[in-house]
Structures are given as structure tokens and as C-alpha cells.
Write a structure and sequence with these properties.
homodimer; 257 residues; mainly alpha; Arc Repressor Mutant, subunit A; Tetracycline Repressor, domain 2; 3 domains; 0% strand; flat; DNA-binding
Chain lengths: 257, 257
DNA sequence: CGAGTGACTGGATCGTTGGTCCGGTGGTCG
DNA sequence: CGACCACCGGACCAACGATCCAGTCACTCG
């Protein structure tokens, strides 16, 4: 019993598909199988033609693409589903919540940049500089990531980088109070820098900078230093980042003595 | 003249008020002045009793309270309005969008911590340490702020602090490539640190830490260093912050030579 | 003293969101 | 041949940010 083609229809001859033969037409016409070309005979065949059956990977890849193109607050489950050619509810089979998608997307971009070859105590400054630079580059290449950094970074790709950083520091000879502080300082410096830069670049940087400059000049009695030196943004992001990093590394190196 | 008792009602004796005498009962009963006790005589007095007529300040103050109590994603215009005893739409007269509320709330908390007394070239390390420490303390006292840092910080309270920082650096003798990089490095270090710490503390830190530790130990072949030293979180936030700050300041100081 | 003004308020409503319910699918294996 | 399972999606829900527009009040001016 129970069997579903309740109304005897040839189901399995390889074509046709005979999707929902009965259904008694339903109470409401309800969109009614898209246009009038819904007759069995025009249906492609093999059910869902060639859709690679929608994996979590495919969802994440498409989410990253959507985020890159339209930004963080334009990511909605519906829009994402539409790009994937499915219904929004289907996504919830592969993923528990929207936050899952964000976490996965965020971790996935860290896979884009390789690690410097194995930690080497003698080259720790170069290795850390390269690591941290790649980290920053990835975050800036996907500016939406900054807005989303306020969640635990515990995905495999992030952990790979964190592991490398700790291993490098250990190999360089740093021990406990300094070890934690070094990892802490480096991570937070990168995160903070990226967050700030992405924040400003997200809204037409030049215009924003000019508005800020004007605002400061108009209140130069209250902000004399800022008015004179210009707004503390966008002077030369790369140079400031590099210089600040050397401060950190210099101070770190000195702590070993 | 001028006197306002339009309908010959003694208005100014301190009571009664005669709020909306006419109104012809309106076309739709529509909730009908809350319950049946809507008769003029039972109405409090003085029109809108004692509501301080809902200023932008009041909105921001209440928004901060709401954020403190319930977190960033529980802030909605409706809930905020309810706490203020008004309808949600009313808020939009004082504020253009919800983001305005966030910007104002974020800036307002920076007013909580004072500035060290005027910049003094000789005490720049102490002054900057104090400034940055206060900054961090405020952000941690309002953990929702971290999730919201991805927006331009250009409010008056933030600018006061930024001005102080720049003035201190100038007074200390830093000049251009270093001046920008120093301000950049310090700000971003604080922001990154706070963001990370608030992120973890937002979800029951001890539990999260244990879960992370377990996760790492289960994969100790992939993350040997991390598994051995424990997850790179929550060891001692304050100490790591202070130590990292000294690295930065040491490196900065060395750059002056 | 009546008409008017501008600051301020809120009910109804719109389009959209994240998420759930539940009734389906096709393919495969016993 | 029937049962199962991985997978899909229409209908639906409560809640959200935002807007429209019809007011109501304190006060001023002619």
C-alpha cells in the first residue's frame, strides 16, 4: 500500500518523468506549472536536468560571488537561492541559518591565499609579514568581510593560518607571555586595519574623504590638529599598514632580548 | 493678550488641560483612546503628561540602554519606540534611518570616558596609553559596539579623542610618515582587539573556549601548535592587550631615533 | 479672538526579510 | 515492486525598516 502513483501512470520508461500526474489540480490554480508550456512532453527529461545537485560548497561559492558583487547587506537567502536556481527554502536543508552561510563564506576566502613555506625560525619576520599581508589582501579583496568580522573565526582555513602564525612564533623562540601577546597583537592589528579601510572604501572613498576634510576645517577651533593634517583616513593605506607593522615587529623583537 | 484658553476653560490653574475636546469621535473606532477611560476628565492633565517631548538625545540614550541590555541585533525601531512610550513611526521624525540611531549611539558612548589633561610632549606614552585604555574600556563596557564598528567614526566624541591622539603625537615630535602610521596603528590595534574580545565574550566565553580547545585537540595532527598551547583566545585579555601596546609604543619610540 | 504655523505624533500599510511546515520528488537498494 | 532516503519548494508566519498621511498640540500674529 502507500505507493504513490495512486492513479496508475507509467513512471519509469526513461523519459517523460510524469511529474505529479494527479494532484487533482489543487484547490487554487496557484501559478500553475510556469506558463503553458508545462505539458509533460516539453519538459527536458531526466527530471532536474544537469544541476549539480546543490551542495554546501556550491552554496558557499555562490554566496561569495553575491557578496563580492553586491555587498554584505544585499545577501539574503532568497537572492542567493535565485542565483542558484532553487527555492530559498531548499537552502535550509544544506545550512542551518543564514549566519552559517556567512561563517562559511568568510572562512572560504581565506583559502585563496597560500601560506609561506613551512615556519622557519630564522625568517620569522619575513614569514609573518607575508602571512599578515596575505591575510589583509584577502580581506580587502572581499570588502564585505570586514562588516562580518564580528564572529568567531574558527573555520579550517582560518585555523590553518593561525596555526602557521603560532608555529612561526614558537620557532622564532617566543615564549609564553610574549607568545600570546604577539599573536594577539598581530591578528588584531590586521583585523582593525582592514575593518577601518574597508569601511571607508565601501563608500566612495574620495568623496567621503573630502566631506570629512571639509567638516574638520569648518571646526578647526575644536580640531586644530586634525584640520591641519587632514582627516586621519586614506592618506596611503598600504604604507601606513606596512609602517605600523614594522613598529609592532620591532617592539616584538626587542622583547626577546 | 495672546492667552491661549480657546474654549473658555480655565487652563492655567495647573490641572485639567482639556486635551482634544472635539475630534467628533473619528470615522473608525480604531482602538479608540485606550480602553474606555478616555473621557476628558480622567485624562492626566497638561496634554502629554510629563513626557520630555522625545528629543534625539532621549532616543539615543534609550537606544544605548536597549543595546546594553539586549545586544545589537535586538535593537529594532519598534522595540525602541515601545521603550520610549511612542509609536515606531514617530522616531523617524527625529532620525532619518535606523543607521542614524546606531551612529549616534556609538558616538555617544565615547563621551563616557574623559580625556587625559591636555597633550604634553613629555608624557606622550602615558597619555596615549590612558587614551587608548579608556577607548577600549568603553567599547568593552558596551559589547554591542564591536559589531557596529564597521561604520565611519566621525561623531563629535570620537573626533575629540582622535584630535587628542594626533595632538599628542605631534607634541611628542612625530612627523609625517610616522605620524599617520602611529595614529593608524594605535586606532586599529584598539579596534581589532576590542572586536575580537567582544566577539568571544558575547557567547559565554568559558563554554566557547572549551569547545574550541576540544576542537583543536581532536585535530592535533593538523594544528599541533594550537592544540598544545590552547586556543588563541581569552588567556588574559588585559595582559595581552597591555603587552601588545608596549610593543607598538616601543617600536614607535624607536622610529624617532 | 479666530486663523494659522510649525513642531511633533501615530495608525495603517508596503515590500522584504529569516525561518518553518509539510507535502512532495527522483534514484536506489532490498 | 515497494520502501526508503536525500533532496526540493510552495505556502505561510511573525517581524522588520520605512513611508504616507491625517491629525494634535503650543504658540503667534493680525
Amino acid at each position: 500500500m502507500v505507493d504513490h502513483h495512486t492513479r496508475l501512470v507509467v513512471v519509469n520508461d526513461g523519459e517523460t518523468g510524469a511529474a505529479r500526474a494527479g494532484d487533482a489540480d489543487g484547490p487554487s490554480t496557484a501559478r500553475q506549472g510556469r506558463t503553458a508550456a508545462g505539458d509533460v512532453w516539453f519538459r527536458p527529461s531526466r527530471a532536474r536536468r544537469e544541476t549539480p545537485p546543490l551542495s554546501r560548497e556550491r552554496i558557499v561559492r555562490e554566496a561569495v560571488a553575491l557578496l563580492d558583487e553586491e555587498g554584505a547587506e544585499r545577501l539574503t537567502m532568497r537572492r542567493l537561492a535565485e542565483r542558484l536556481g532553487t527555492g530559498s527554502t531548499t537552502l535550509y536543508w544544506h545550512v542551518k541559518t543564514k549566519d552559517d552561510v556567512l561563517d562559511l563564506a568568510l572562512d572560504s576566502i581565506f583559502g585563496e591565499v597560500g601560506l609561506p613555506s613551512g615556519p622557519d625560525g630564522g625568517r620569522w619576520r619575513e614569514d609573518l609579514t607575508a602571512l599578515v599581508g596575505g591575510w589583509r589582501a584577502v580581506l580587502l579583496r572581499h570588502p564585505w568581510s570586514a562588516a562580518v568580522l564580528g564572529r568567531p573565526l574558527m573555520g579550517p582555513n582560518v585555523l590553518d593560518r593561525t596555526e602557521f602564525m603560532h608555529a612561526t612564533l614558537v620557532a622564532a623562540g617566543f615564549t609564553e607571555p610574549h607568545l600570546s601577546a604577539a599573536a594577539y597583537g598581530l591578528s588584531n592589528y590586521v583585523i582593525g586595519s582592514t575593518l577601518m579601510q574597508a569601511t571607508w572604501q565601501a563608500r566612495d572613498e574620495e568623496t567621503a574623504r573630502q566631506a570629512a576634510e571639509e567638516h574638520l576645517r569648518a571646526r578647526r577651533d575644536r580640531y586644530p590638529t586634525l584640520a591641519e593634517h587632514g582627516p586621519p583616513i586614506g592618506k596611503d593605506w598600504d604604507a601606513s599598514f606596512a609602517l605600523g607593522l614594522t613598529y609592532l615587529l620591532d617592539g616584538l623583537e626587542a622583547s626577546k632580548l
